[in-house]
Amino acid sequence: MSQQARRSPRRTEALSRERIVEAAVGMLDAAGEGGLTFRALTERLATGPGAIYWHVANKGELLAAATDAVVAAALAAEPEGASPRDRIRALALGLFDAVDAHNWVAAQLSASSWQVTTPRIFEGVGRHVSAMGVPREQWFTVTSVVVQYILGAAAQNAANAQVLGPGADRGEFLAKVSTAWEELDPDDYSFTRTVAQQMREHDDRQQFLDGIDLVLAGITAVHPPAG
Amino acid sequence: MSQQARRSPRRTEALSRERIVEAAVGMLDAAGEGGLTFRALTERLATGPGAIYWHVANKGELLAAATDAVVAAALAAEPEGASPRDRIRALALGLFDAVDAHNWVAAQLSASSWQVTTPRIFEGVGRHVSAMGVPREQWFTVTSVVVQYILGAAAQNAANAQVLGPGADRGEFLAKVSTAWEELDPDDYSFTRTVAQQMREHDDRQQFLDGIDLVLAGITAVHPPAG
DNA sequence: ACTTCCTTGGAACGCCATTCCAGAGAGGCT
DNA sequence: AGCCTCTCTGGAATGGCGTTCCAAGGAAGT
What we know:
Two copies of one chain form a homodimer.
Chain A: H1 17-31, H2 38-45, H3 49-55, H4 59-76, H5 84-101, H6 105-109, H7 117-131, H8 139-164, H9 170-182, H10 190-194, H11 196-201, H12 204-222
The structure holds a DNA duplex.
Pfam families (chains A, B): TetR_C_1 (PF02909), TetR_N (PF00440)
Keywords (chains A, B): DNA-binding, Transcription, Transcription regulation
Organism (chains A, B): Actinomycetospora endophytica
């Protein structure tokens, strides 16, 4: 199909899959999911659709490649920390921050990327899970749970950020949602009403870390290190 | 804007928001995310686009309404079980099965539906969390974690089902992915390779329940009922 | 009967992903 | 040198999509 290799330089930098993916990430970051169109991409790269389609099969593949680029970068930094738990925390937080910075990634992680991107995350988490003393025959299950939580929380967080928009005030947004919760029907939403205030004051990142700790506590409770 | 009410019957059943949403759910179930188009919808309802747009603002709102209809139905059955834990399990499993049956829902839950659908789920989970003896000031955080895990796991599961397609053999699919994992680079994917066999034999539903139990164990570990 | 206004469906618009194709330009061959 | 080949390009064209506009249908109120 493709692979351009040894070729002398041109007036403009030669087109390549790498350069296309890079441009795609930039456009997605700037304008969100709907900001990536082949029209805009051809303009940005000063070329035509045919040139792009030579390097990339279709939009889905481009989206998957862009997602993989972001995740790979987030996973590139070796997680610091002495214990496996600390390393899981660091890895999870890195992923969370990456999804927060590129919030179009969330939708992709729950979609096409199973082929390449998810194994990457799975491997990173799994190594530390196995180091935690979880019995071997539970490795797959436990690792899956951790990955599912990380991706679920990151996706949820990105969804909130998306309805917000790039320039909006976060505190104002939380206050608005909190007020909306307080005005729900007391019969149907008694619980939600009572936590409306906590929701107003919460910090997304801290809550995510609390969630990781809770899952990790669950792992040690179900699979004690000594057993 | 809308609300049609007292009107005598016609040759064909009168159009209504309810009937449109119902048709949309049917089309999404039958043909997936891409199966819902206004063109096909007008044909199925034997009408024109203008008629539909009179009842529904745009496609996003229609998708949100369809999602809410599915989730509301899944949450309608009062969860059985004596303990709060059992009720959380029942509620979570109901949601998981609903997303599995309508796997286009997953993408929506991580998107627009924050306004209506997520509070519904949040309330259902939160009531049982508060009954578990979690300290009041942790209700929001703990409930969020549980909801995030449920949605994350359901989304992940639906994503797998989606690449599979309606008629494909599940065992065959697992075998194929498992084999692909076994052929990964041993240096980069040592962990993933060792659990490839477990992945081949796992059961999605059972693993989801194990995950719920793990999270619940984490809750009691961090917030002991007596404390 | 006449007016009003909710409701309908067809025609048209602009944008999108994708396909097709004529050809530019660099190596390799003779 | 000339020619051929094969990679790579970009412009034009296609079909499908969400959405808008609007002329009219038809029951309710007078």
